């Protein structure tokens, strides 16, 4: 049974877009065994880490399951949503998180990114241990090994090139599908909330409660003016941390995609892409950041390449971010 596999090579055959669509059709259908929400949350976690792959298209488990644990924690502990299709039972990961919460007397209101770093790390390790048994083999089996290989001993997975291209090309619509299917699943097995309310929670489940730490890094390292209009940055309250590639697309916070923007620019840019001369400016900014040693110790910066940012910009446009924003004249 594929679910119990420990090491599995990807099927080497080239797969077409049609093949990947048919796998997703299967995963999202009632034919696929979805007794828990694992598959939907794993797909969301892969999407969040699409631009964290190394040059071999590998992701280590820590990266993938940091997203997975965060999403689960926020759904299970913060929103109190059951993740299994049986009453009186709990999904393995769900029990793991609830036991941890009880043992450390953590309040329900605490979202994942507010937990101390040490606790986050311990939780991620526990979730990895659990997920090796149930999660990694399940989607591998559903997709006939077409989308990734994985190794539970070395704790990494490797996306196949055709699947990776597919995910970049259809990132937004796959995210919509995964969120919607997760909402439908949760609606069936939870008393509180309708699809619309659940979707809202799911769409925001990965959002950090504060970007303050990024603001301080950016301010201390180089930036004392608005990235877009050049207005001086005087205080925290009048300025924002802006996701250059909109958060609604990338769904993650990477230093190389974040800039300080004045409130006026941030508000009017909102969910749009900035004109491509700002792309060039950001690539130059990131090159400068990499010359500062302390930044190079950050995993997000280690995995950054100018090509990734360039790709991400192009794929944002092809995924529908076609409205291009420029700052208003001051
Ligand atoms: Zn500005």
Report on the structure:
The mean pLDDT is 92. This protein has helices spanning 17-27, 38-48, 61-78, 92-103, 117-134, 136-142, 161-169, 171-188, 195-203, 212-221, 247-250, 263-269, 276-290, 293-296, 299-302, 306-318; strands at 7-8, 58-60, 148-151, 156-159, 239-243, 258-262, 273-274, 324-325. Strand 3 (148-151) and strand 4 (156-159) form a beta hairpin. The chain is an alpha+beta fold. It has a 4-stranded antiparallel beta sheet. The chain has a two-stranded antiparallel ribbon with strand order 5-6. It has a two-stranded parallel ribbon with strand order 7-8. It folds into 2 domains: 2-203, no CATH class; 212-325, no CATH class. Bound molecules: zinc ion (ZN). The site of zinc ion has 9 residues, from strand 6 and helix 12.
Total tally of structural domains? 2
Structural class: alpha+beta
Distance between termini? 64 Å
Quantity of strands, as a count: 8
Mean of pLDDT = 92
Proportion of β residues? 5-15%
> What spatial order of strands do you see in the largest sheet?
1-3-4-2
Please outline the major beta sheet.
4 strands, antiparallel
> For the CA atoms, what is the radius of gyration?
20 Å
Spell out the key features of this protein.
single chain, 330 residues, alpha+beta, two-stranded antiparallel sheet, 16 helices, 8 strands, nucleic acid binding, nuclease
């Amino acid at each position: 049974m594929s679910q119990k596999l420990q090491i599995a090579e990807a099927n080497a055959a080239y797969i077409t877009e049609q093949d990947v669509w048919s796998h997703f059709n299967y995963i999202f259908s009632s034919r696929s065994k979805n007794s828990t929400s694992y598959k939907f949350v794993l797909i969301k976690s892969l999407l969040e880490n699409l631009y964290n792959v190394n040059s071999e298209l590998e992701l280590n488990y820590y990266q993938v399951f940091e997203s997975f644990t965060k999403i689960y924690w926020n759904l299970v502990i913060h929103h109190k949503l059951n993740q299994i299709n049986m009453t009186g039972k709990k999904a393995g990961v769900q029990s793991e998180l609830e036991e941890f919460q009880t043992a450390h007397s953590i309040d329900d209101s605490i979202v994942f990114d507010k937990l101390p770093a040490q606790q986050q790390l311990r939780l991620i390790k526990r979730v990895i241990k659990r997920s090796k048994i149930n999660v990694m083999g399940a989607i591998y089996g559903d997709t006939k090994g077409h989308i990734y290989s994985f190794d539970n001993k070395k704790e990494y997975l490797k996306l196949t090139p055709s699947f990776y291209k597919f995910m970049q090309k259809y990132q937004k619509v796959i995210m919509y599908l995964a969120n919607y299917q997760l909402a439908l699943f949760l609606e069936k097995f939870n008393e509180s909330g309708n699809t619309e309310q659940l979707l809202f929670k799911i769409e925001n489940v990965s959002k950090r409660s504060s970007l303050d730490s990024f603001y301080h890094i950016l301010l201390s390292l180089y930036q004392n003016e608005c990235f877009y209009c050049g207005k001086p940055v005087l205080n925290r309250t009048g300025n924002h941390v802006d996701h250059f590639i909109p958060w609604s697309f990338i769904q993650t916070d990477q230093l190389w995609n974040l800039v300080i923007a004045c409130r006026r620019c941030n508000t009017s840019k909102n969910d749009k892409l900035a004109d491509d001369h700002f792309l060039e400016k950001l690539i130059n900014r990131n090159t400068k950041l990499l010359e500062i040693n302390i930044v190079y110790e950050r995993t997000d910066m280690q995995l950054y390449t100018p090509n990734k940012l360039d790709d991400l910009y192009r794929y944002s446009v092809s995924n529908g971010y076609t409205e291009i924003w420029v700052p208003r004249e001051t």
